[in-house]
Amino acid sequence: MAKNAYDFGAYQAKRPKFRSIPGHMSMVFHYIGFKNHKTDVEMAGKTIKMTDFKQAILLKKQGVSQREIARRLGISRDTVDKSFAFIASKGYKFEALLQLDDMELLKLLHPGHSAITDRKKHEDFLERLDYFREQLRDPHVTRFLLWEEYRKDNPDGYGRAQFYHHLSQNLKVARSEGVFSDLYVPGQLLMTDFAGDTIPIVDPFTGEIWEAQVFVATMAFSDFTFAYAVRSQRSEELVHALGRCFEHLGGVPQMVRLDNLKAGVKKYHPHEPDFNDALRQMGNHYHFVLYACRPSKPGDKALVESAVRRVYNRIYAKLHNRTFHSLEELNEALAQAVLEHNQTRMQRRPYSRQECFIASEKDELQPLPATIFELEYTAQLTVQNNSHIYLSPDKCHYSVHHAYVGRKATVKYTRNIVKIYVGECVFTHLRNHDRFTFFVTDNEHMASNNKAVRDRSVEEYTRRASSVNSDLAGYVDAVFKDGIRQGFAVECRFKTCQGIIATARKYPCNVVSEGCRIALEREKYSSKILGNILEVLYTSDIASR
To answer: Is the pLDDT of residue 366 over 50?
Structure first.
């Protein structure tokens, strides 16, 4: 053989039997499916098989150095160091880890991680994403050029590596054809359901606990999830939750699949179910078509059933130690937890649900209408003598101007607004959802006698007494203090003080002053006793003349 000839056989004989795959090739295998996702885990930025991971643990127990472990297993020393540091930080025991099978060990060490670390940066990046996609269609525009432009506009934004990563993730999802593409069309179908488990809300004033229902929806193609708490599963709450879901999505899907619940379906039919008028009106307003699942067939909405299970495991579990005092507080917590869930990288996909939704579905949704749909009810009611109408669904009275007492009123109300018409709209109230508030009143609506009753207070009675006589004001104040001393509420002395003032108005000021002095000396706090004293004093005064 010539001196400079290439001896391939000799090279193969000297070549090591095991050699780690270069990083870029490993990434290729990872995406085209040659890697086994069920037995690999990403740790410290590298992919380690569970079999190798257990081998590393066994070698470590035998006292082999981490450098030697890396050499024997063909893994970088940095990866081995970070892997054992990870185990130590979690407090895991070697014996316990070795007893787990590969799937359990994978789930323990790699439950999923958030793709987003700085939400403000990511939101700004997503706002610019459409522009980046459009620019990259030009073959002369590079990612580096886009990054330089991005950093010029946003100096505190992503560095080049992070910018490339997030841009690559979104572009990759846009090209992907493996996410249920054989079953679902992007932006076409939204599946909805109510979670079976409720979340308790504690009334901050009474301590009473009531259960909030949780509405769950998921886009069929991307599995992008939405969760929202409402008071009940009634039609108006379902309509409200669906509207908030469309706002969250930023558009309207072509079809909405409902569970076969009474709030949506009046009578089921396998081909043409009879939906109630509220949902038909909403469908016409938002331009979507309604579908209903078959009774006792959860497979018809399997994706949202899975979404409900994930809501239990990833959202309810995070909130189980918290106490909520209002729906608003609960929905804020749900929104944050759902956002983290949607931004978490999927275990079997190299992207998150949010990335898939933005890249593949958001642009396919129909635009939102100019106005929000709200279900409206109508009732014919009479304005009562107390200047209120009584709305039975709320078990609450809403005020109307006293000039309309006795007249018939048409009341139109939605989930949030109550409008009262007497020929024309005479007043609008915010709808009351507090079960312990029975009157919603505007003081301007009250007649003078009603205002006098509503405005009763210690200060008001003292003011009325002082307009008659200053000594009478002191006596009235003493009557209230005596009641408080005996443990009575001040309201218990309102009638007494009203009688005292009415009685005192019948007599001259000097007689009232003397009568109040005598009653205070004898500690008599009664309108009847004060009246007798004033009558005696007045008779004596007349007789002395």
So the answer is: yes
